[in-house]
Amino acid sequence: MDPHGYRGTPIQKNEGHRKAKIAFAFAALFVVGLIVSAALGAAGPLTVPTTDATSTATDAPPSDATGASSSASLCGSTDTAHIAAGFVDGNLTVTGSGFPSLCDVSLNTLGPAGTADSGTTSAGVDGSFTYSAPLDGAAGTYQVDATDMNGATLASASFELGVAGAVTSLIVKLRADLSSDEQDAVIARDGGTETKTIAPLRLHVVQVAADEADATLQRYQGDTPDVVRAELDKTREARGEPSDPGYADQWALPKIGWDNVYGIVDVTGSAKIAVLDTGVSSADGDVNVGSGWSAFGTDPASDPNGHGTWVSSIAAAASNDKGIAGVDFANTTIQPVQVLDSGGVGQDSDIIEGVIWAAGNGADVVLMSFSNPGFSPALQDAIDYAWAQGAVIVAATGNDGSATPTFPAGDAGVIGVSATDQDDAL
Questions:
Q1: How far apart (Å, rounded) are the C-alpha atoms in residues 348 and 175?
Q2: Taking a C-beta distance cutoff of 8 angstroms, is the pair 115, 144 a contact?
Q3: Among residues 197, 361, 198, 334, which one has the least CA distance to residue 277?
């Protein structure tokens, strides 16, 4: 772990075997029929469970010569003062106990982006109180301080205001020299709830309600120099249905001279192809599936959609009298990296994690059969990272013959692949 709180493997250049690895990338050059669309979640309300916090009592300053009010003088520091704060049904709710009897208390709330609010209440004879007031704020961390009328802090508590319902996410890149506490402070002041970090790239994924996304994004983008960059977490989608399997239907293989190599060239090397998709099954033994990773915590060697398995079969199905013949027909292991859901849809933040996993687990080729017209600097960072680790990156451009750039195929360092017909026309 480095001194700034990030964990990850340092980038190392690895050009020694890139030429050999590029040969394996051609296994991916025939993945076709992929047209892409993007969508973001809709807005949802804010909710958070009530949380408790331990108080910190400090000495109250003495009254001045003119004298504070008699009630304020009753609110000296005590070792028993305690508050709990939370967000319930649209209201800030604070409960207190252990305060001096009949003490007047000021409650000061500091929220994300420096938003502040205050109110007053009085403890009962038993030293307890319950305070409630409307709170309309962004998701993030809120600090509540209970003070006496002279401003001395008697007890404190904090709570996280989370997001429920349909949400969207931001991808935030922070400055390299920030400590862990300083990183947390940026998230607290700019808003949202951090759901994951991608340490090698200094990226933080922050969840927000969709109707607050623009305002929260602007706060992060304006928080210089601590925030290097902030963007919406874009959605990418795999499209296209395969034809029936079988070599007789695979006119593309003779088109590239595959039949002049198979059975003649003795393949002595091996390759790992990381397929970032809906998961990869073994296709009844036709695909050699190795270890993998899932963004959803499920088994990446299962494929609820079928798209990832089809892509993998085109790239590397074994020559074993089953299914179809793969372009890379020998000594190839598919690493299933599940970043698209059962509907073939995935978020950039999950895709970025998948690229980092593939680069860190020896992938020779990273194959992504999805796209979106939106450029993501964070995804480009991940591709640069994988390239520096020695991987060759291949991505689909779509199947419509359009000259409009799509991504990640349009990113630097990526081999973009489109479909052609039997006459070599787009």
A1: 21
A2: no
A3: 334
Separation between Cα atoms, residue 109 and residue 135, nearest integer Å: 10
Indicate the pTM of the whole model: 0.64
Predicted confidence (pLDDT) per residue in 376-405, tens digit: 999 999 999 999 999 999 999 877 777 888
Neighbours of 41 (CB within 10 A): 17
* SS3 state of residue 306: coil
Beta bridge partners of 416: 395
The answer to whether 120 touches 105, Cβ cutoff 8 Å, is: yes
Q: Give the sheet arrangement for strand 227-232, strand by strand.
A: 193-198, 203-209, 167-174, 227-232
Are 44 and 165 within 8 A, CB to CB?
yes
Distance CA 393, CA 411 (A): 10
| Cβ neighbours, 10 Å, residue 136 | 10
Q: Which of 36-50, 139-153, 192-206, 245-259 has the lowest mean pLDDT?
A: 36-50
Report which DSSP code applies to 361: T
